[in-house]
Design a protein that fits this description.
The structure holds 2 protein chains of 2 kinds. By secondary structure, chain A is α/β, with parallel strands linked by helices. Chain A contains 12 helices and 16 strands. In chain A, the strands form 5 sheets. In chain A, strands 1, 2, 3, 11, 12, 13 and 14 form a 7-stranded mixed beta sheet that branches. In chain A, strands 8-15-16 form a 3-stranded antiparallel beta sheet, with helices on one face. A two-stranded antiparallel sheet of chain A has the order 4-5. Chain A is globular. Classes of the chains: A alpha/beta, B mainly alpha.
């Protein structure tokens, strides 16, 4: 039997980065907010203290902080002609679980998109001609511009205390930063992190070749920082256990280190953990969400009515929830119709490894977002005229760890 | 391992509705209680917890050929790799806890990952039994552990690349499983029973669980000067 709870102004599905940020804004505006989170509460001192956070086997190899496939998984195939099979154990794709979401285990690389990324179809058509993009390519403009989003990028970076060097402040180019970036309203809140040896070699070589290396923007902080909410972060200690790990030093920007201490003290906020939303409820006309139904870890089902329903889980789970709730039209790759699930993509990076027998890099001394990068080959920062492709990526000497089990690379 | 979140609500959380067995409401303050963390338990020496005596002898022989001892570094056996594997198989890893282990079971592409219904513990039990049978048939009643190093290496090579076939389990799959767990045992924190005296870390120059390198980030191209340390400290901190 489903038990109905008293109505709230807003229900948030998933208490990670987006859920925490929206909960903060809505509770500040006076709304009564409940966040429903599939995983457990996670707290720095209890869940990833410095005394045992640096445990590669437990966190990286055995996935201790992640969603367990036995709890929830998905099927997978590379193309429609194959039979989709269950993901039994995570590979490169590891969905997080619990309060803080991906903010707990991310590397905290804190990039902004390039201005042209927001109007990609228009930009590419204007620069290379309307026929450059094949008809079946789904690239489109975002519908908002970089300039419209800039204040929000700025706000997020000042929430996190992001460490970096601006390359463009209000249109004025800055030495040492990324000359290709969109205009920022101000410098980064904290200076760049110190760099290990390897990236400095890359930067020197890049400079010699006429490129413009800049330190990767990092949510692992170069120094202590107190953010706009009065929450303080500590300096990163270059421990080398960042991505896939929680930070024991309060020095990686996460909901835990930037927002939650303020949020939980607000009387109009509450979080329910180990509770999984099973569907979004709709009104009779199926035009308006009226709340959610969720199941707690004992199997009990609850209905939480709310005026606003915010989907703040990872995109795959948001899409799944929309589909099983009968919202919108699922994307069909054969016809190109439908928007639910359209254009989903996963981050891809490619890398080459260098080996020097006469140099000592101490690769275990690193942070999640460290290194020097160049942006000359990113987006449309170079002429694609005769190349037969569009897009690109940053290049950099980026070394996030020297952990022994999965990080040992032999020549 | 009992996780903190399996406990019912703390004094700090104001439960509006009774939500037993884990689910809880958090409001008013950050939930915190003393001693709620879940540090790993130090693996203790002693008898096998998963392996039989014969299986244990075979695994010790296997890990010691995958990582043979040399004058500077102990081999897989003395580094504790077999103890590591035994304790892992006796725990949640051995029973594939948390993994998706329900049907449908059918072979897929390499990208779709392992689709076998067998847990790691079952793979070892089957694989070691099949290996034992093969050795006793082929070497006049001798077990794998009783073979010469050259014979062992030949068998291991055949497990990896054929043509040796094992009864009831893929030989290559079994080889891959043992190799992976041996590497883990050699290089994981010593608290799990392998990497004894941090032999694996010393060999590759890994500093371990120190967690603070602010004093060395600027020392470019200079070897880090301090010896490694594990989550449980170092053996010379706890004299016997």
């Amino acid at each position: 039997m489903t038990r109905k709870l008293p109505a709230k102004d807003a229900v948030i599905i998933g208490l990670g980065w987006t859920g925490s940020i929206l909960a903060e804004a809505l509770t500040r505006a006076g709304l009564d907010v409940v966040a429903i989170e599939r995983g457990p509460w996670r707290d720095t001192a209890t869940d990833f203290p410095t005394t045992y956070a640096p445990d590669e086997l437990r966190y990286r190899v055995r996935h201790d902080l992640f969603l367990r496939p036995g709890q929830e998984t998905m099927t997978f195939r590379n193309k429609p002609s194959q039979t989709a099979l269950p993901i039994r154990s995570w590979g490169s794709f590891m969905p997080p679980n619990g309060v803080g979401g991906g903010g707990v285990h991310w590397n905290a690389e804190t990039w902004r998109f390039l201005p042209s990324d927001f109007e990609l179809k228009t930009h590419l058509s204007q620069r290379y001609g309307a026929k450059t993009l094949p008809e079946d390519m789904t690239i489109q403009d975002w519908g908002i511009t970089y300039d419209e989003l800039e204040p929000h990028y700025d706000k997020f970076e000042y929430l996190c205390g992001t460490s970096g060097k601006a390359g463009n402040v209000k249109g004025a180019k800055q030495d040492g930063g990324n000359p290709f970036e969109g205009a920022r309203s101000r410098e980064y809140p904290t200076p760049p992190q110190k760099q290990p040896y390897g990236p400095t070699l890359f930067a020197a070589a890049a400079r010699e070749m006429g490129y413009h290396p800049f330190p990767q923007p990092s949510g692992n902080l170069s120094q202590a920082y107190t953010n706009s909410h009065g929450v303080s972060l500590g300096p990163c200690t270059y421990c080398g256990f960042c991505e896939w790990f929680g930070c024991g030093n309060y020095s990686k920007a996460s909901p835990q280190t930037t927002l939650l201490p303020v949020l939980v003290r607000r009387p109009n906020f509450e979080a329910r953990t180990l509770c999984e939303v099973s569907r979004i409820n709709l009104d009779g006309a199926k035009k308006r969400a009226t709340g959610v139904t969720y199941v707690d870890s004992s199997g009990e089902e609850w209905e939480q009515p709310a005026d606003l329903v915010l989907l703040c889980a990872f995109q795959l789970f948001n899409v799944h929830l929309l589909m099983i709730s009968g919202v919108g039209t699922p994307y069909d790759p054969n016809t190109g119709q439908g928007t639910i699930g359209r254009n989903y993509s996963y981050q891809v990076t490619s890398s080459v490894n260098g080996f020097w027998s006469d140099k000592n890099f101490n690769p275990f001394i690193s942070s999640g977002a460290i290194g020097y990068c160049i942006d000359e080959f990113n987006g449309d920062n170079f002429d694609h005229g005769s190349l037969g492709f569009v897009g690109g990526g940053y290049m950099g000497a980026v070394m996030t760890n020297g952990r022994p089990i999965l990080g040992s690379i032999l020549p | 391992m009992l996780r903190r979140d399996l406990l019912t609500g703390t004094a700090l959380s104001l439960a509006l509705f009774a939500m037993p067995a884990g689910a809880r409401t958090i409001a008013g303050a950050l939930p915190w209680q003393p001693d709620a963390g879940t540090p790993p338990n130090q693996v203790t020496p002693g008898p096998w917890k998963f392996f039989t005596a014969e299986e244990g002898a075979a695994i010790e022989a296997l890990v010691d050929r995958l990582i043979p001892p040399d004058p500077k570094t102990p081999g897989g056996k003395d580094a504790g790799c077999a103890v590591f594997i035994d304790r892992q198989l006796a725990g949640p890893y051995g029973s594939a806890q948390g993994l998706y282990m329900r049907p449908p079971f059918q072979d897929g592409t390499k990208e779709q990952g392992d689709q076998s219904p067998m847990t790691p513990a079952q793979r070892y039990r089957k694989g070691l039994a099949a290996l034992d049978k093969h050795c006793r048939d082929a070497f006049a009643g001798k077990s794998f552990a009783q073979l010469t190093n050259a014979q062992k290496d030949d068998i291991i090579g055949q497990l990896e690349k054929g043509p040796l076939k094992l009864e009831g389990i893929s030989a290559a799959g079994f080889f891959e499983q043992v190799l992976k767990n041996t590497q883990e045992g050699f290089l994981a924190d010593p608290i799990y029973g392998g990497n004894r005296d941090m032999a694996g870390w010393k060999m590759i120059g890994f500093a371990g669980a120190r967690y603070d390198f602010r004093d060395w980030i600027d020392h470019h191209n200079e070897r880090y000067p301090l010896p490694p340390v594990g989550i449980g400290g170092r053996s010379d901190w706890h004299p016997a």
